[in-house]
Specification:
The chain is mainly alpha-helical. The chain has 11 helices and no strands. α1 crosses α2. The longest helix is centred in the C-terminal third of the chain and has 39 residues. One of its GO terms (biological process) is protein polyubiquitination.
Length: 200
């Protein structure tokens, strides 16, 4: 089991006796779980139990020493029961899924570790490029309007062209209404000035 770990993890384990001891203990616990399961009267109920699957999966994930065993286990448990059972029986598939989950976690942490201003700037740049394709003349104004939205909604705009198109059309309508209000206000202001000047 330990020899199936990635070379980097294996070399790290071999360099530190304490880490090696912990890895061997984790591997032994993981190997003993199926034996404990076999000794139960109702084997199907135990394997079907999400707690039992979670414990088994955690023991296997924890061997990788990612520092995120609980989060990765939780991510993997969101899959269908059959997929989780496949992970328990296929070390290569488990390694692939653990690496993918770890990569996803690192990307998430990297994104949310940036300051809000950096996130907004990055989203703004991406959003501007897409809005400019739809309305080059008003891309600055529309992008500014859309950046007032929640970051999750902005991500949705960036991921779905139809949603983005709808948001751009609403922003265009708002800009048109603003122009009409401004021209109407200017007309009223001109009339007011004329009446004041005419009165005197």
């Amino acid at each position: 089991m330990l020899l199936e770990l990635p070379v980097t993890v294996l070399s790290q384990i071999l360099q530190d006796e304490d880490t090696l001891t912990k890895a061997v203990e984790k591997a032994l616990r993981a190997l003993q779980l199926p034996q404990d399961k076999a000794s139960c009267k109702d084997e199907d109920d135990v394997s079907a139990s999400s707690d039992s699957l979670g414990e088994q999966l955690f023991e296997l994930v924890d061997v990788y020493n990612t520092g995120h065993s609980q989060k990765i286990t939780g991510m993997l448990l969101e899959q269908h029961r059959e997929a989780v059972l496949n992970l328990l029986s296929d070390p290569h598939l488990l390694e692939e899924q653990v690496n993918f989950a770890l990569k996803t976690l690192k990307e998430y942490v990297t994104y949310y570790d940036l300051s809000d201003a950096e996130n907004i700037d990055r989203l703004g740049d991406k959003l501007f490029a897409q809005v400019e394709e739809l309305d080059p003349l008003h891309a600055n104004d529309i992008t500014g309007m859309l950046l007032e939205m929640d970051p999750v909604a902005l991500q949705q705009l960036l991921g779905d062209r139809t949603v983005l198109l709808g948001a751009v059309q609403k922003a265009q309508a708002a800009l048109d209404n603003l122009k009409q209000l401004n021209s109407s206000s200017q007309m009223h202001l001109s009339e007011s000035i004329e009446s004041v000047v005419f009165y005197y």
